[in-house]
Amino acid sequence: MNGIKTYGIKILAIAAAVGGGAAATSCLEDDVNTILVDPSDPAQGGNSGGHPGGDKPGKPVSHDLRFYMAGLRHPDSGEWPRLTGSGAEQNAWVEIDGESVDYLREEFPALSDDHIIAKDFLTLDLGSLYPGREFCVIGNYPYNISSQIFFHILKWKDQCVCCSGMLQKEVAERIAAKEGTKARGILSVLLQAWYDVEYLFTVDEHVFNPPPKVKSGVIRLTRNAVTELGCDPARFKTVVKTTFGQRRKTIRNSAKSLLPPGGAMPESPLMALRPEQLSVAQFVELTNLLS
Question: Which residue range is the domain that position 72 belongs to?
Fold first, then answer.
């Protein structure tokens, strides 16, 4: 991804799941006062450093570092994940920006290069970091590639049992959107097929200094119990992407290109609906009808 730069520190933390996988996630709205401090108030650990989506790279405010780790807390002790000390050996910190990597190495010298991965997250083989083990991904997701990040995570859906973190509010709402809402789209359906998605809370611009131009949203994805969709997964993805590609049309019209030459459109009440009106189960049914 040459040319893509993350500003401030947009760490993506990958951690081995604790206490049975999804139980490790506990990023609740009640935590917001703990996670978010006034970045201009030194008494709260703030400074005038970089912020998500800012114009210049800068030293991150300290509360941001805690925020990036907000999705993973020990289910028994409630402790935050640690950059150093007990438990840190299970964590990997992914950051593409060289200045931010230097900051991590300077401020947290106990971290070895085995823990700091100075690479593009989209090129990582996540499964190789924890062979045969479940893991969680937590981060302040770079807003310009957040959708690509979640598509990448889907490749390891059988190992990645939880994701949480902050991204642009509109994208977070889209991921969590239910059937029948205008925000629903391709990412909504593909992620909700395998994960329970929760929109946790909104982060306003004023908590950053300087403030970004957009609001942010914090979401949590927890792996559901689905092991088999009930249809061909590749065909399912094609049906979802094709129908949302013409989202203003009914399925009867948007799915025509999925039929073989001369093939007749199946008779079903689904054909009169638009894609955003369909649940995951209905998309599975539609996929089978069009296969």
Answer: 12-223
